[in-house]
Amino acid sequence: MLQRVYDWIDERLDITPMWRDIADHEVPEHVNPAHHFSAFVYCFGGLTFFITVIQILSGMFLTMYYVPDIVNAYESVRYLQSEVAFGMIVRGMHHWGASLVIVMMFLHTLRVFFTGAYKKPRELNWVVGVLIFFTMLALGFTGYLLPWDMKAYFATVVGLEIAEAVPFVGELAATLLAGGEIIGAQTLTRFFAIHVFFLPGALLGLMAAHFIMIRRQGISGPL
Length: 223
Ligand code: HEM
Known about the structure:
The protein is mainly alpha-helical. The protein has a single domain, classed as Up-down Bundle (Cytochrome Bc1 Complex, Chain C). The protein contains nine helices and no strands. α6 (123-145) crosses α7 and α7 (150-164) packs antiparallel against α8 (170-178). The structure holds protoporphyrin IX containing FE. Keywords: Membrane, Transmembrane, Transmembrane helix.
């Protein structure tokens, strides 16, 4: 039965070469931990991707309950955390995943750096990686404000003060980010929109570029 469905689709869309291209791709020995244990460092990129997927999925579920306005934000998070079935687990995954993904991404960056994988012809992918790095940090920064408790508020005060300290453009950047002179209603809706639409959109595009380049260039050779 399944075979017939597959054949029906394949006859029309020729999908076999698409998945064969991925499934038949050989993994070189020097990146396979089954051959050399130390090759586990080559898994860091894939693990970063895995946690990123968890972040996206858990974040989608969080938005079902989260209310991005200053009167209801804190209560909506409290409600989700203590009343909703599995709410504590989903929020916990997003909370801890946010830190773990940064650690994993950093380890991946160290692997790329210390194996010299950023060198020709992979310079462009390193640059895309740096953009991903800043996108991830910005996701952490904007997400931190959303629970709208004291910790969230004052962390954002500090973050915006750091932005403000940048010469020439600092003040403008801080005002644009906060949506005004103070951290208030405008800041919360702005950070919410940036956190759930702008940055994830950018991240998906950047990750697609990252993976297409890896596929075209292949993984860098052994040391
Ligand atoms: C969401 C964040 C990221 C994800 C999901 C990701 C994913 C991956 C994956 C799956 C690979 C294949 C090899 C491996 O797993 O080590 C890879 C390779 C690579 N990544 Fe990343 N990466 C991310 C961030 C970065 C960052 C921050 C940099 C550098 C600043 C970077 C630079 C590179 C380069 C240059 C390669 C090619 C390495 C080679 O051919 O040996 N990536 N990435």
